[in-house]
Amino acid sequence: MSRLFSGTPFELPATCDLCQKPLGTCTCPRDKDGKVVNPKQAAVRIRREKRAGKLVTVIAGLTMRDADKQTLLKQLKSTLGAGGTVTTEGDIEVQGDHRDKLVQHFTKLGYPAKPSGG
Ligand SMILES: [Zn+2]
Predict the structure, then answer these.
(1) Along the 118 residues of the chain, how does pLDDT read in single tens digits?
(2) Architecture category of domain 39-115 in CATH
(3) Lower Cβ count inside 10 Å, N or C end of the chain?
(4) Distance in Å, CA 51 to ligand 1 centroid
């Protein structure tokens, strides 16, 4: 079925701006409205915190929906070999001090990630 109208020079392809794949097969993180998240617009902050005497690394500012945070968390856990969780505030928390590695990791993914706090 064609949706071309006369006078329309071309049909906008339904591809993802980030990975260039058709939106049906794109696995980029989406926000809660189903739109692909543009990493450049997510001000990700990565900080260390103490929980019960142990250091955790908190990743705040992610705008993707929870299901995609879980996917990302799984990748981070296997990359870092550490445990972690998605908090009720919507942050990702990884056990141990991985701040510098995570800043690098998110920068590679295209996020303007910055360390914050101590
Ligand atoms: Zn994509």
Answers:
(1) 555 555 555 666 689 988 999 988 999 999 999 999 999 999 999 999 998 899 999 999 999 999 999 999 999 999 999 999 999 999 999 999 999 999 999 999 999 999 998 6
(2) 2-Layer Sandwich (3.30)
(3) N
(4) 35
- Domain positions in the chain are 39-115
Residue 98 — left, alpha, or beta (φ > 0 → left; ψ -120 to 50 → alpha)?
A: alpha
SS3 55: strand
Who surrounds ion ligand 1 at CB < 5 A? 16, 18-19, 26, 28
